């Protein structure tokens, strides 16, 4: 199985592994994610209805209200949060939620910053392993589909 | 736990905070700030002299545990700290049919912050109270509308500090030295010119939320500069502009040439940088934006709400004038959300009775967006607030209609919205 390595910058360092849940649309956790079920409830979001628990969420960045940090923290407390988050823009709001999860609950949801092209190269359902220091290892999806080619 | 703080320049006092020389709450707050600083692109902290806390809305047990833990660890705010709207009306929650266990959690959360020394202001318009900052003051405020007002209208300096970072700033008296704290980031980035917008329209209250909404929709990151405003807007009109700009987008600072303190002229607003050409704001464009604030197509109205941000004394007196001797139609819920301080003054001057006799619930400490106050079954909300109109469909689950204060009062009486388009021609 081909493994693609991506060197990212850890905004919140840690290790995680899960199937990728990929979107090109920013997501506001406040009003966009139900922290009890860990489901995306924003009707205008392409991933509406998807569950986050155990997945590696790959997206450009969060969006909107500062209260999103609180929703990510509640999700981490409820065990419904993604296993890890990969972003291509520095996102203080999601970063804060993850830092609070670590500081208050001792549960680390790593948040890794990668380039726009690297983010675009991760296909949904690939298996993503996040290693300490911001290294990502991306394996083909379970259906044998190769990761999509890098965007220019 | 990560101990990589060597990229940060820390003062002796800040290092002491991290090492627990003050108390464990300050140490935790300083750790959170030290881990967050790189995410803001900061390598040091600045001292702030005021904080305003938004983490006071009950969202779940993790947030409540955090606040109670900080209070138990002996946390005390280092700077004057005000509190944003909470999740309940402390004196009227039963009458408003708030769920008792929800109200109990909301009260516990409020108490934890008050134990840490915060003032129980519970308002989203702190800039219209005695806790308002002054020009040039470095502060750590949260609540997007308050941040936009403090930065733009007063000329104080703050970034948008979200849940839990706000209390970290209050406990340490520090904020990351980045963003809008620094002069160079307060330079205008987008130039707008009002053109052909009659002064008669500029003088109307409903003009300001629409202009703000346009700025928020157009500028995702940056500092808009508005030129060509001939009217002299009131504090309440500027409040409505700031709140709408902060809810349709993420605007933390804007300048209005000749009105706001960092924009005596165009050159100052752009800090001397020359600009190509302005984006024109015409009446036609304003009309399009105004339509976005209305999602309902039927004219039926079953909720009418005023006071987002919290209504000022002047706004409440205007409502009393319009409501005096009249009554809301049966089945129409009418809310005025305001601060407890304003409500007390209304009560002592007889104005509260006038407003309540109309059939209005005058709600203090909270608002209809952060607490589920609107009764189930409501379908259409009419409001003079750009912020309520924006959040109505997503958060309250109602269609919204945006109108003037007068039109909203009329709709409460008749149960039907009659919106006058002629002033927008």
Describe what this molecule looks like in 3D.
- The complex is a heterodimer of chains A (152) and B (425).
- In chain A, helix 1 runs parallel beside helix 2.
- Helix content of chain A is 20%, strand content 27%.
- In chain A, a hairpin with a 3-residue loop joins strand 9 and strand 10.
- Chain A is globular, with a radius of gyration of 14 Å.
- Chain A has one domain: Phosphohistidine domain (Glucose Oxidase, domain 1, 3-Layer(bba) Sandwich), CATH 3.50.30.10.
- Chain A has three helices and ten strands, in the order ββββββαβαβαββ.
- With 152 residues, chain A is of the alpha/beta class.
- Chain A has an eight-stranded mixed β-sheet with strand order 1-10-9-3-6-7-8-2. In chain A, strands 4-5 form a two-stranded antiparallel ribbon.
- With 425 residues, chain B is of the alpha/beta class.
- Chain B has three domains: 178 residues, Aconitase, domain 3, CATH 3.30.499; 106 residues, no CATH class; 122 residues, Aconitase, domain 3 (2-Layer Sandwich).
- Chain B contains 16 helices and 14 strands.
- Chain B has a five-stranded parallel β-sheet, sandwiched between helices.
- In chain B, helix 1 crosses helix 2, helix 2 crosses helix 6 and helix 5 crosses helix 9.
- The model of chain B has no long low-confidence stretch (mean pLDDT 95).
- At the A-B interface, helix 1 and helix 2 of A face helix 2 and helix 3 of B.
């Amino acid at each position: 199985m081909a493994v693609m390595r991506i060197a990212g910058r850890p905004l919140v360092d840690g290790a995680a592994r899960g199937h990728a849940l990929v979107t090109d649309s920013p997501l506001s956790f406040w009003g966009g994610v139900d922290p009890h079920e860990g489901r995306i409830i924003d009707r205008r979001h392409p991933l509406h209805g998807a569950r986050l628990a155990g997945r590696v969420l790959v997206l450009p960045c969060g969006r909107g209200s500062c209260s999103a940090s609180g929703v990510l923290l509640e999700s981490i407390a409820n065990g419904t949060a993604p296993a890890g988050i990969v972003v291509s823009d520095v996102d203080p709001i999601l970063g804060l939620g993850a830092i609070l999860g670590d500081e208050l609950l001792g549960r680390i949801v790593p948040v890794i910053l990668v380039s726009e092209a690297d983010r675009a190269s991760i296909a949904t359902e690939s298996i993503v392993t996040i290693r300490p220091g911001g290294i990502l290892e991306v394996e083909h999806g379970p259906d044998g589909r190769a990761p999509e080619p890098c965007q220019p | 736990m990560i101990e990589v703080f060597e990229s940060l320049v820390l003062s002796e006092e800040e290092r002491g905070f991290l090492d627990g020389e003050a108390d464990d709450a300050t140490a935790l707050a300083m750790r959170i700030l030290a881990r967050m600083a790189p995410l803001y692109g900061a390598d040091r902290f600045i001292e702030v002299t005021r904080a305003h806390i938004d983490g006071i809305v009950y969202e779940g047990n993790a947030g409540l545990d955090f606040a109670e833990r900080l209070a138990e660890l002996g946390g005390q705010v280092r700077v004057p700290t005000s509190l944003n709207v909470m999740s309940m009306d402390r004196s009227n929650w039963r009458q408003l049919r708030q769920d008792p266990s929800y109200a109990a959690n909301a009260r516990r959360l409020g108490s934890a912050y008050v134990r840490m020394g915060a003032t129980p202001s519970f308002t989203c318009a702190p800039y219209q109270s005695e806790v308002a900052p002054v020009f040039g003051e470095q502060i750590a405020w949260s609540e997007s509308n308050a941040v936009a007002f403090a930065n733009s209208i007063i000329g104080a300096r703050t970034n948008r500090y979200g849940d839990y970072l706000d209390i970290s700033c209050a406990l340490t008296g520090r904020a990351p030295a980045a963003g809008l704290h620094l002069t160079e980031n307060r330079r205008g980035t987008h130039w707008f010119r009002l053109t052909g917008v009659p002064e008669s329209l500029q003088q109307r209250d409903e003009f300001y939320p629409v202009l703000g909404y346009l700025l928020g929709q157009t500028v995702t990151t940056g500092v808009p500069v508005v030129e060509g405003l001939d009217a002299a807007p009131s504090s309440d009109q500027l409040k409505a502009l700031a709140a709408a700009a902060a809810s349709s987008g993420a605007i933390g600072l804007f300048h209005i040439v000749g009105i706001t303190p960092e924009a005596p002229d165009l050159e100052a607003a752009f800090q001397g940088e020359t600009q190509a050409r302005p984006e024109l704001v015409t009446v036609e464009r304003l009309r399009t934006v105004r339509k976005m604030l209305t999602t309902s197509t039927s004219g039926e109205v079953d909720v009418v709400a005023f006071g987002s941000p919290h209504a000022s004394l002047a706004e409440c007196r205007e409502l009393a004038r319009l409501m005096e001797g009249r009554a809301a139609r049966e089945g129409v819920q009418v809310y005025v959300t305001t601060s407890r301080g304003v409500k007390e003054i209304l009560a002592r001057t007889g104005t509260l009775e006038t407003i309540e006799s109309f059939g209005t619930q005058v709600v203090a400490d909270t608002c209809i967006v952060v607490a589920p106050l609107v009764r189930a079954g409501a379908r259409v909300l009419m409001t003079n607030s750009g912020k309520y109109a924006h959040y109505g469909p997503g958060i309250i689950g109602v269609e919204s209609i945006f109108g003037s204060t007068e039109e909203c009062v009329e709709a409460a009486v008749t149960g039907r919205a009659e919106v006058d388009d002629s002033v927008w021609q």
